[in-house]
Amino acid sequence: MLTDYAARVHLETTGPEDGEPVWLLHGWGSHAANMRPIAEALAATYRVFNVDLPGHGRTPPPPDAWGVPEHAALVAHLIRTHSAPPVTLVGHSNGGRISLFMASTPVHEPLVRRLVLISPSGVTPQRGADYYVRSTTARLLKAPFAFLPRPLREAGLDWLRHTLVWRMLGSSDYQRVQGVMRETFIKTVRHHLDDQVARIQVPTLLFWGTADAAISRRQMLHLEDAIPDAGLVTLEGAGHYGYLDAFHIFHTATTYFLEHT
Question: What is the rounded distance in angstroms from the CA atom of residue 51 to the CA atom of residue 58?
């Protein structure tokens, strides 16, 4: 049950009880502690909720492999349980993907007042030749098992996933996780929102660092163009954690945005 699992989610709450609610969603492989500078900067005025997402920080892995809809359902449950919607979502990387999904999905959209997104994932990246070589190799390695009876096929694929050659084909994020979190990672990163983000109607502030190796300028421009009320702040020289690399600019722009939307 979602309610049982939600009770095990680590949630840090700061700021005045009557403050406008702001929810912080970290990226994949990160945790709430990396978002604390934002929480500390906003807590004088806002009621800030900083979440360790499933399988990260002090929150246990989900009961089975979750994708973006399941993460969004969890966040929605937490919002309804701990604060008065609509709320501001501040999402970094995969936390941005979850935020984009929520703001563009009818069942969750009423919970969202505005978005602040730092290098959000969710827009299909352009793939290089190396990606296609690795994906083709993976398909070829899996192909022989397709002809086996189901029990043997599943056992064979499980063996394959534990081989060195298979691990070498995966990304560093993929290689760092096991079990249900590996399947959760696959389901999550394959969920793209290119067309769906055009449905977002709330004010949206985007941040992107020019030295970000994970999210491209093209992906950010797609979001800026697709979301009707979106603006992009470029952080010169900042990387994927642009809010930390250029915190003063991030904080100044975010505070102004929150005060005027």
Answer: 10
Cα distance between residue 101 and residue 196, in whole Å: 8
CB contact set of 109 (below 8 Å; sequence gap of 6+): 102, 103, 199, 201, 202
Give me the DSSP letters along 153-171.
Answer: HHHHHHHHHTSHHHHHHS-
Can you tell me the distance from the alpha carbon of 87 to that of 202, in angstroms, rounded to the nearest whole number? 11
Query: Could you report the per-residue pLDDT of 166-208, keeping only the tens digit for each?
Result: 455 454 544 565 589 999 999 999 999 999 999 999 999 999 9
Length of the chain: 261
Residue 190, token pair as written in the block: 């394959």
The DSSP call for residue 126 is P
Report H helices in the chain.
Answer: 2-6, 36-42, 68-82, 94-103, 129-142, 150-161, 164-169, 172-176, 179-189, 217-226, 242-245, 247-260
Q: What is the pLDDT of residues 39-53, one digit of tens each?
A: 999 999 999 999 999
Residue 132's identity, in one-letter code, is: Y
